[in-house]
Amino acid sequence: MTNRLPYTFIALIAVLLVGGWQWWQKHQQSIREDAQYAGFVKANQSVKGREVIHLYTAAWCGYCKHLKESLDNSGVPYLDHDVETSKEGKDFFGSHKFIGIPVTVVGRETVEGYDADQLGSVFEKAGYKVGGLQM
Q1: Which CATH number fits domain 53-125: 1.10.10.10, 3.40.30.10, 3.40.50.150, 3.60.110.10?
Q2: What is the pTM of this model?
Q3: Which tens digits make up the pLDDT trace of 68-83?
């Protein structure tokens, strides 16, 4: 009977180590997911109580350049995601069925393509004054 005690003890330690290892792996995954979510929230926090503007553009796009110039000249902050070179731009554009650029996202509002009136309305609803949108 005394010979079985060391084997039982070793088996108990092995079970505890495996269980502890599995718990640690799951805990680390949770920490990574929390960090990713925190990064997403930080990137989408409002600017002075306003929604963040996300532009999905390409370097060769004339409408994209004009939109960014209008925002820059109006002092309006935005995040630019190139759909050809940035991971965020590729992921977003690839996961939706957009057929044109620029794509402008402000909160829950999305404008595909360049429509000065629609963009002006979306920016105004979000509290931004953007001039020079008309081409």
Answers
A1: 3.40.30.10
A2: 0.65
A3: 999 999 999 999 999 9
